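User: Hi! I have a protein structure encoded as tokens and I'd like to know what sequence might fold into it. I'm fairly new to this, so please keep things simple.
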């Protein structure tokens, strides 16, 4: 029997199933058995952690498939990401997070290649470098990817979990993530309505803040326009003054010639 090793980092690399999803998988395995082989890399389980746990607990037979094509743990992680991105059941938020993880791995590889072998990065290293490419990989808009990045950087774990469970939208969660940690926690504790209210209040505050700024910007634009007009008028007057000086000098010269002639 094949010895299977669990790598905690790989096991936790993908978001866990919800309670209802896990229960549905368990019912399926009990009724139909484990039809898909568990994938291993040097004996380490890289795909099928939930199936492995359920089958082991209930004594359900399963097959394993050794994939020897990977050279590093990063290769395994990229394979896991691509494997999950291809699944229909993955939510928009999960796809965005996975795409960003792939971007991080690729960015690190590009940096390493640049140091060890200056030259053109490999095709794989170029495949998820920009935000547009990352959004395309996740099948999301650039704006949604920006919001997911904001959530990852500023949201509390509780707010992230609210997004994962569908309690709050990505858009609203990115807005709430701009609040201090205590206010995020209070909003999450208040449930869906409180989260929506918090997002609405943040948006309203931003709208009110933009109105005075717009007025100031308009006043500054008016001042700049008036200043430009004054500078143009000054330049015109200086030009006219120079012309008058030249004309005066010419007249004085003619007078001097006439005086000398007399």
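Assistant: Happy to help. Inverse folding works backwards from shape to sequence: for each of the 262 positions I chose a residue that suits the local structure. Here it is:
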């Amino acid at each position: 029997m094949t010895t299977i090793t669990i790598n905690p980092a790989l096991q936790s690399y993908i978001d866990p199933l919800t309670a209802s999803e896990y229960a549905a998988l368990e019912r399926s395995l009990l009724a139909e058995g484990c039809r898909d082989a568990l994938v291993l890399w040097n004996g380490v389980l890289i795909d099928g952690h939930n199936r492995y746990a359920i089958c082991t607990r209930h004594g359900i037979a399963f097959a394993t498939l050794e994939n020897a094509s990977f050279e590093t743990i990063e290769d395994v992680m990229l394979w896991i990401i691509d494997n999950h991105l291809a699944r229909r059941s993955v939510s928009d938020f999960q796809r965005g997070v996975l795409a960003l993880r792939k971007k991080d791995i690729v960015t690190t590889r590009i940096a390493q290649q640049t140091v060890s072998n200056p030259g053109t990065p490999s095709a794989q290293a170029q495949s998820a470098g920009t935000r547009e490419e990352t959004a395309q990989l996740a099948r999301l808009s650039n704006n949604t990817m920006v919001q997911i990045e904001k959530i990852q950087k500023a949201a509390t774990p509780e707010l992230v979990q609210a997004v994962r469970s569908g309690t709050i939208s990505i858009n609203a969660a990115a807005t709430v993530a701009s609040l201090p940690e205590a206010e995020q926690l209070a909003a999450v504790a208040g449930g869906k309505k409180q989260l929506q209210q918090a997002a609405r209040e943040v948006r309203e505050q931003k709208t009110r803040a933009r109105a005075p700024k717009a007025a100031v910007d308009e006043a500054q634009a008016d001042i700049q326009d008036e200043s430009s007009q004054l500078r143009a008028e000054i330049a015109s007057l200086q030009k006219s003054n120079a012309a008058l000086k030249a004309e005066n000098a010419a007249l004085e010269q003619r007078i001097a010639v006439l005086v000398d002639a007399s």
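A useful reference point when you look it over: Residues 133 and 210 are 32 Å apart (CA to CA). Feel free to ask if any position seems puzzling.
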